[in-house]
C-alpha cells in the first residue's frame, strides 16, 4: 500500500508541481555587484552569461537530467502570468529572474506556518532550482 498517497489530504488532480529556476549569473549581475547604477545601462539589458553563469547552467543541466525532469516536465514557461495557473499540465518549470520567482513564492506562501514561509521566501541563488507543490484547496 502506498502510504504517502493515503496521507496526502488533496487529490493529485488538484495539484501542480512547480519547478522554479533562476537564470545563471549574467554580466548584469557582475556589473551590478560593483555598481548598482550599471543595472540601468542599456547595453546590459540582455546581458550574456558570465563564465561563472555558464558553469552554473552546466551544473544545473546535469542535476535536472539526473532528477529526470526532462522526461517529466509538461510545460516550460518564462512568464509567470496568470495564464500559467489555468494550464492543464501537472508539472511545470518556470524560468525567470530571482525577484519574479520570489514574488511567486511570496504570494503562494501566505497560508503557511511562519517558519515554512520564511524558508520558502529565501532569496534565489543564481541558477538555483526550487520545486514546490501547489494545491488548489477549493
UniProtKB/TrEMBL annotation:
- Which GO CC terms are listed, alphabetically? cytoplasm
PROSITE patterns in UniProt = PG_MUTASE
One Pfam match, given by its short name, reads His_Phos_1
Per its UniProt record, what SUPFAM superfamilies does this chain match?
Answer: Phosphoglycerate mutase-like (SSF53254)
Which InterPro entries does this UniProt record tie to the protein?
A: His_Pase_superF_clade-1, His_PPase_superfam, PG/BPGM_mutase_AS, PGM_Phosphatase
MF terms in GO: phosphatase activity
Family assignment? Belongs to the phosphoglycerate mutase family.
Q: What is this protein called?
A: Histidine phosphatase superfamily, clade-1
Amino acid at each position: 500500500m502506498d502510504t504517502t498517497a493515503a496521507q496526502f489530504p488533496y487529490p493529485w488532480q488538484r495539484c501542480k508541481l512547480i519547478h522554479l529556476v533562476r537564470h545563471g549569473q549574467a554580466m548584469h549581475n557582475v556589473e551590478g555587484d560593483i555598481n548598482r547604477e550599471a543595472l540601468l545601462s542599456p547595453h546590459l539589458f540582455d546581458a550574456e552569461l558570465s563564465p561563472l553563469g555558464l558553469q552554473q547552467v552546466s551544473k544545473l543541466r546535469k542535476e535536472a537530467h539526473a532528477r529526470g525532469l526532462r522526461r517529466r516536465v509538461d510545460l516550460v514557461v518564462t512568464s509567470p502570468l496568470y495564464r500559467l495557473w489555468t494550464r492543464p499540465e501537472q508539472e511545470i518549470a518556470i524560468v525567470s529572474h530571482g525577484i519574479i520567482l520570489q514574488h511567486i513564492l511570496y504570494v503562494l506562501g501566505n497560508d503557511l506556518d511562519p517558519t515554512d514561509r520564511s524558508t520558502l521566501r529565501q532569496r534565489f541563488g543564481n541558477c538555483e532550482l526550487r520545486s514546490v507543490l501547489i494545491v488548489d484547496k477549493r
